[in-house]
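User: Predict the full complex structure for these chains.
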Amino acid sequence: MIRVVDVSHHYGVRPVLSHINLEIPSGELVVLMGPNGAGKSTLLGIVAGLISPAKGHAEINGLRRRSSQESETQIRRQAVFLSDQPWLPEFKTGREWLMAIGELYDVEPERLMDHITRILALFQLTEKGESPIRTYSSGQKKKLAICGALVTEAPILILDEPFTGGLDPAAILSLGRVLKRLGDQRDKTIFMSSQIAEMIEPIAHRIAILEGTRIKAYDTLDGLRAATGCTGSFAEVVEKLVNPQTLEQIENYFKSPQR
Amino acid sequence: MRRRIPFHSNAVWPPPFIVFLFVLTYGIFYGGMWLILYCSGARSDLDTESMLGTSFVILGAVSFALFRLTRFHPAFHPRYAAWLRSSPWTWNRPLPLGPILLVWQDVFVIAVLAGVAWCVHATAAFVPITFGLSYLIGLNIAMAVTRTWLPCLLMAFLWPALFLTQDKDFPTGCIVAGLVIVAWAGTRFSLRTFPWSRNELESMRDSAPNLAKSLASAEIRLPGSEKSVWAQVSNLGWPFNALSPKAKYYSIPRLASISLSLLLGWWVYCVTVAFESSIVPAAILFFAIFAAFIRLVLYCNGLRTPFNIWGRLATGRLIIPGFDRVFVTPLTAIGIAIAGGVVISHFDPSSPAIGAGLLALILYILLEGGPTMREWRLTGSHEHRPPTLREINRRAFRSG
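Assistant: Here is the predicted structure of the two-chain assembly.
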C-alpha cells in the first residue's frame, strides 16, 4: 500500500502540491493525471523517495520514507521508480545493464536471465540487447528503461509517463498489456502518471486527477463518470475534469478575427 | 653433489632491454656532453654536469625500486594477483615470479649503480639511500592497498620522525631500522592475509575509478569468480543510482578517523619543528575551510535543498533541520579553527604542538562529525538531482 499524507511542496515561492492525501491499496493500479506542470512528477518523485516534501510524508507498506536508514533501505528493496527521462550507462549493453539492475534487487540469477530474454523479446530488443546502450535510439532507451523497472520484480512500481518518450505503437500496446496483467496481480501495486486516456481506460483501477496543486478527483472510472455526469468516452471524462473549457477555447481559437 | 641454487637467482634483476636503455641514455648524455665541449673548446661546467649525471643515477635507483615492487608484488600486479588466487600458492612458499623482499641479487644491482656514481661523481651514498627510501615508500603504499593497516600506520608515523632527527645519526639509524623492520614484518603479514578482500578492490574502484578499475576488472574474468554483474556496472544510471537499495556510501571507522587525525597532526608537528617555523592561525582557518568545503561537496553531490532561499524566506522556514544538519559539522570545524586561532594568537603563537593538535582536532571533527554519509543520504530532507548533460557525458566516458 502507498499512502501520501498531507503532502505540500513548493519550488522557491511557487506552490506545486497542497495538502495532498492519497491512499493506493495493494494490488491496484492507480493513474495520476493532470495538466502539464500540475505536479504529477513531483508527487511521484516524493512517493519514489527522490524528493523530500516541504510538509507531510509518503508511506510505502506502512514504512515512512526517510524516517530511518533501515526503513528507507527496506522501502528501496520493495519499490522501483521509472523516471520520465531515465539515463542509462551508455557503454554497457542492454543485457548487462538489465542483469545489473536485477541483481541490485536480489532477483535469483537464473530467473533473471530468463526474464531478461523474454522481456527483450517482448519489446523487440533481442538483438539490440547485446549492443552498447549508446547505439540505441531514444525510443529503444525508453523501452530498456521500462524493462529495467520490470526485471526488478519489485512489488511496487512507480512509473512516470511510461507511455511517452518515443515508444513505437507496438511497444505502447505491449506495455499497456503488461501493465494490465501486472495490475491484476494482487501482489503488485502500480502508481503511474500518464496523459493518454485511451491507454489508461483499460488498465487503471482508479484515477487521480491533480489540478491546481490539489487532488481534484480520485475514484474508479465509473465513479468519475458518475461524478462528472459524462456518459461519453473516458477521454471526454478526462477532458471535463482536467480542462472543462477545452471546447470553448477551441471555438475561440478558430473564431475569425473581426476586421 | 649438486649445489642448491638460491631461489630466484637473478629474477630480480631488471630486464636486459631496460638495462641497455639506461646505459644507452647515460652514454648518450656523457658522449653528447663530451662532444659539445670538444667542438666548442669550452670548459666543462662540472657542477651542472655532475648534477645532471647524478639525476640519471637517482632515476635509475628509483626506477629499480619501482620495478622491484610493481613486478613482484601482487598488490601492484592485478593479473598476477588474480592468477595467484587461483593457484595453490600459500604465503609460506616463495612467490612464483620472484620475491618482494630484498635478496642479495638486489645488492649487486645497487652496487653497480653506486659504482657508476662513485666513478663519475666521487660519491655513492645517495644511490642506496634513494633506492631504500623509494622501496620503503612503495612497501608502505602496498600495505595501504592490501589494507594491512597496523604496519602501514606505524610506517606513516615513523616517516616524519626522520625530519626531527635529521642531524643525529644514531636516532636516524634507529628510525630507519624501525621502518625496515615494520616494512619487512608488514609485507609478510599482508602476504599471509592473501587473497585480499574483493570488497577492498570494489571500494577502491568507487573512490578512484581509473586506478582500481583495472585491479577489479582483471578479476572479473576469472572462472568461477563470484563478482557480480552489478559490481561491474558501477554506474546504473538515473534514477537507479540515486534509489539503489544497495548503494554504498563512504564511511570511515572511528579508529581510522583517530589515526588519520593523529597522523596529520604528527606530520605537521614534525615538519614545522624541522623547518623551525610556526603554524599561523590563518593556515589553520584555511585548512578548516578547505576541508569543510570538501566534506560538503562529498555530502551534497547530486543533491539539492528541497526549496531554495526565496522559498525559505517566503514560508518563514529559514532553517530546514532535515537539510541544514549537513552544515553543522563543517561550521563547527570552522568555528573551532577561529577559536583556536584566537587562543594561539593570545598565548603561544610559536608552539607547533598546539597548531598541530588543532589541525588534528579539526580533521577528526570533519571525519567523525554527524550525520554519517549513509544516514544523510538515506534520511536527509533533500532532493536527488537528475544528472546534467555534462555529468552524463562525463559518466559515459568513465563507465566505458
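The interface with chain A takes residues 228-230, 232-233, 235-240, 242-246, 306-308, 310-311, 314-315, 317, 322-323, 374-375, 378-384, 386-387, 392, 395-396, 399-400 of chain B (CB under 8 Å).
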